[in-house]
Amino acid sequence: MATANMEEMEIVYQRPESLLNVTTHYCPGCTHGVAHRLVAEVLDEMGLRERTIGVASVGCSVFAYNYFNFDFVQAPHGRAPAMATGIKRVRPDAIVMTYQGDGDMISIGSGEIVAAAARGENITVIFINNANYGMTGGQMAPTTLPGMKTTSSPNGRDVETMGYPIRASELIATLDGASYVVRRSLHDPKNIRLAKRAIRYAFEAQVRGLGLSLVELLSTCPSNWKMTPLESTRWLEAKMIPYYPLNDFKVHPALAELKI
Amino acid sequence: MSRELWEGNQAMAEACVRAGLQAYFGYPITPQTEVLEYMSARMPELGRAFLQAESELGTINMVYGAACAGVRVMSSTSSPGTSLMMEGMSYIAGTEVPMLLIDVMRGGPGLGNIAPSQGDYNQIVHGGGHGDYHPIVLAPASVQEAVDLLYGFFDIIEKYRAIGILLVDGSLGQMMEPVEMPPMLPLRKEIPEYAVSGAKGRSRRFLSSIDLDPYIEEKTNLRILQRWQEVEKNEIRYRTYYLDDARFAVVGFGSAGRIALSAVRAAREEGIPVGLIRPISLNPFPSQVLEDAAKHLEAMLVVEMNSGMMLNDVQLAVKGSLPVEFYGRIGGVMPFPDEVLEEIRSLAKGPLKNDGLARERWLNKLEKLIQ
Questions:
Q1: Does B63 touch chain A (CB under 8 A)?
Q2: Measuring CA to CA, which residue among A110, A89, A242, A115 is closest to residue A178?
Q3: I need a labelling partner for B238 at 20 to 30 A (CA). Which of A90, A128, A175, B158 fits?
Q4: Is the Cβ of B207 closer than 8 Å to some Cβ of chain A?
Q5: Domain at A22-150+162-256: CATH architecture
Q6: Is B262 within 8 Å of chain A by CB?
Q7: Rounded to two decimals, what is the model's pTM?
Q8: B252, B260 in Cβ contact below 8 A?
Q9: A148 SS3 class
């Protein structure tokens, strides 16, 4: 057995300083943990941890503050962009991030996110889209796909009576105040790397004061989807991506020139 | 200092600016819109934060964020806007960060009207938002008093990490009166030890109203309650008029108290020994003052611009020790001093009933009056 020479070893993977060394409450196979880690890695790499103030939302990510190692507040359901606005307006040097699920951001909080984006609030929004209300046990969300069964659409989402899903990123991208709006997915390693890159751009937008940046992350919810983690990632790829295409919906010219 | 003529809403805004206000968030609603308009010019001029929010929901959560960031922050609104802010105020109370609100009350319920009212008393004084918390509520009766109360209000709410609400009615917001403005205070530079500001060179801070463990939440509730007991001990405010030789007393707050004072003076000219007790702190309520006064009085008359919301608190305070009558106008109507004078005359003339049915007698009268 070869003995490793410690002096030649290099740490290539470790817990980011921006993440706390704790066990999360997230279900096995849920991609919240992946999204947390990507945000933490980016903040570490950009040296922003000590300047960052996070705004947790209501939903599964209500406990995000337990896992990130920087200052945090926790907003009422849907109101994170307004709370982030209040913080950013009085602490313009802080890096302010909201971390919101789909029910929080585009159902109860649709007014707040649209207004914040229209104002060009210089904040970053990490938007987790798993097509249902995870925390309360898998009810229909504005992002639930047509025909998709949830605990409050037991026969599948009937668009005739329950309406159509909202493509939040496409909607937000129409607003002049938004600087960077993209959709990525967390269902496989390649897409996870692309997601990290997008998160980096989103924080670069904030550092440069370009306006609201938003990264939508298609995420799995194995517990409420009643699938294994593997089935979940396959379902996401097969069902969600066709409805929610992975795309850059808006990229500020100053970011398009940026080489990272 | 010289006295200048100020509109109530603008005067209140300037008083807060001079008290070291660092951030204002608001939304237009009559009859408080002049506060928002005034701030929209004044705050940027001083390099301080101002933003017109998308709604009162947005407003209160911007206030919440700025309060968590540790700055002197406030908003102003009127009754329907206050209702929208109640969710946020409950969160702010649960997070134990200080904020200031001016509620310029108008007629309700619902969209109601834009005339002066005191119909938010129960909502503001007895909570409003969900959960177990107590805002500090002060009610001025003149523009000068509003200015003076606001000038010291930030110190009070910061001391107790509490929500402060200045409860005024539309007439106080809209009327012009001579005011002596206090001097401009310097802005606070230091960041409070609880505030989020970026975890540079220290461990992270977290502010929230969530405690999933009921036993921890119970401790939070207890802490808030203990702090409230200190407020009750230290922050009772009221004014009494002509009480020394009085056999009767009118009790009224804000504009109703001011109208009652005119009636009390007129009654005095008729030889009726009547005084006035004007609670200024509605929460904490000057219950002991009322209880003590009741010992030397034959009867009280509560006058309000609502259906007797403070009446309940007065009745609780005096513990049935004397007859308490009530007179009010509702839905945005202000009583005239003559109406109150007539009630004082009835009080002095007797006979008086200590049966707790003051509201019923008033309703009978009102039904005849407004037919």
A1: yes
A2: A115
A3: B158
A4: yes
A5: 3-Layer(aba) Sandwich (3.40)
A6: no
A7: 0.96
A8: yes
A9: coil
